[in-house]
Design brief:
Length: 126
């Protein structure tokens, strides 16, 4: 029996396994051998998906990316007070802090006050 290969069917099948109290994958058959142990089944899945990513030896040559001609370049970008304030006020709330450990709520609330120090370090050079 050929099963449909679209994502909705795949996710519903996966969800049916995850929503059952017994979260074991049923026995699978690989190379005419039934596998019952979880590590064996995991390795069989790993082997299958690893095989899908291998390139065939007779595959066509790798595609070459198109060459782009640059007719003009940017030298500097200086954000205006209004642009920077709008950017800071548009930050989403309820997200984790970034590597600077500053919460978006602080940046949003202090958007006006932070313009001068941020604008001095936000000049982007190309």
């Amino acid at each position: 029996m050929q099963l449909p290969l679209y994502s909705k069917y795949w996710w519903s099948t996966l969800n049916s396994f995850l929503s059952t109290p017994n979260r074991h994958i049923p026995p699978i058959e690989t190379n005419h051998t039934l596998m019952y142990e979880e590590p064996d089944k995991a390795n069989a899945f790993n082997d299958y998906f690893a095989e899908q990513t291998k390139l065939q030896a007779d595959a066509s040559a790798e595609p070459t990316p198109p060459l782009y001609q640059l007719n003009s370049t940017l030298s500097n970008i200086h954000p205006t007070h209004h642009e920077l304030e709008l950017l800071l006020r548009s930050l989403p709330l309820g997200t984790a802090v970034g590597p600077d450990l500053v919460n978006n709520r602080i940046l949003k609330e202090l958007a006006f006050e932070l313009y001068t120090p941020l604008a001095s370090c936000l000049t982007i050079h190309f």
